[in-house]
Amino acid sequence: MLNICIVFAQLEHETIQKRVTDAYYSRNKKGFLKGGRVPYGFRLEPIMIEGISTSYYAPIEKELEQIELIYNLYTDGIKEDGSLYSFRDILNYLIDNDIPHLRGGYWTVPLISSILSNPSYAIADLSLYEFFDSQAANIINPVELWEGGNGCYLYQGTVSKSKSKNDLKDKEIVLALHKGRIPSHIWIECRLRCMNRRQMATTNKTKSSWLVGKVKCGNCGKSLQISPSRISKKTGKQIRYMNCSFKYTTRGLGCKGTESTLYADHLESYVLDQIKARLEEFEGLKENDNHTNP
After folding, report:
1. Residue 46, by phi and psi: left (phi above 0), alpha (psi -120 to 50) or beta?
2. What contacts 34, CB < 8 A, 6 or more positions away?
3. Which residues neighbour 62 within 8 Å (Cβ) at sequence distance 6 or greater?
């Protein structure tokens, strides 16, 4: 009887989970707000649609002016050597010109990257529809509704398994309730550059550590990360350093809590010794007099 109850409880749990998922995607296909963090440049405004309470992105003009500047810098900004602006160049421009983050945060490269790839800012017209169609995205709304007034949302969808931001195949594109701000040709140009951008720093095992994510900065509380290693001239071995992950994200405006050199090997050895010393305080399993265990 208990086994039967457990089976039905599991079935009910899976049924509820399926209903919640179906309801979520049903709301998405109607253009309702998907939830999550509100993009920079917008605020939430409540609205009633078809008797259902939801919200939409209301514009914040001063923030959207900064968004337009970031897009223009990425498409038209040219350095002295003739190359176009990178994410880092845009970050330097914002800092050098004292352009503040209006929500009290810091400008960072990941933030600029997310802004330049977010379709919520784009004006949803025919050109944008054709771009998403060429990327094999699942476009929910028919082409005749892409008239150039609204923005759009990007969802993971029920079919797509890819977690990559650059891979749009089978991901769902839905017209949003808010107005788009960035012209479609500018957004598409930025998006294509983001998709073709190569990661300059290669990852390898020598740059990782089992302490990453477990040790925190004593100043700001952010996690420590492995900095790019170098080869020692004396030993010929790689030297790994650990720094606060918030130290270099804003070009000198981040955390100042780890000014001294922190060697990853030394920290790993120290933590390992402390773990061993702590384990030695516990008594081991004692052998039973009547039973001899191998």
Report:
1. beta
2. 27, 28, 153, 155
3. 102
Contacts of 149 (CB under 8 A, 6+ apart): 123, 124, 179, 180
Q: Taking residues 219-235, what's their average pLDDT?
A: 72
Q: What is the pLDDT of residues 265-292, one digit of tens each?
A: 888 899 899 998 888 888 765 555 555 4
- The CA-atom distances, in angstroms, between 4 and each of 8, 9, 11, 12 are 6, 9, 11, 12
Annotated domain spans of the chain: 29-196, 205-279
Annotation: CATH topology of 29-196: Hect, E3 ligase catalytic domain fold (3.90.1750)
Structure confidence at residue 219 as a pLDDT band (50, 70, 90): confident
pLDDT range class, residue 244, cuts 50, 70, 90: confident
Question: What is the three-class DSSP state of 230?
Answer: strand
Name the strands in the sheet holding 150-155, side by side, starting at the edge strand that comes first in the sequence.
Answer: 138-139, 172-179, 150-155
- Return the SS3 of 278: helix
Which tokens go with 170?
């089978």
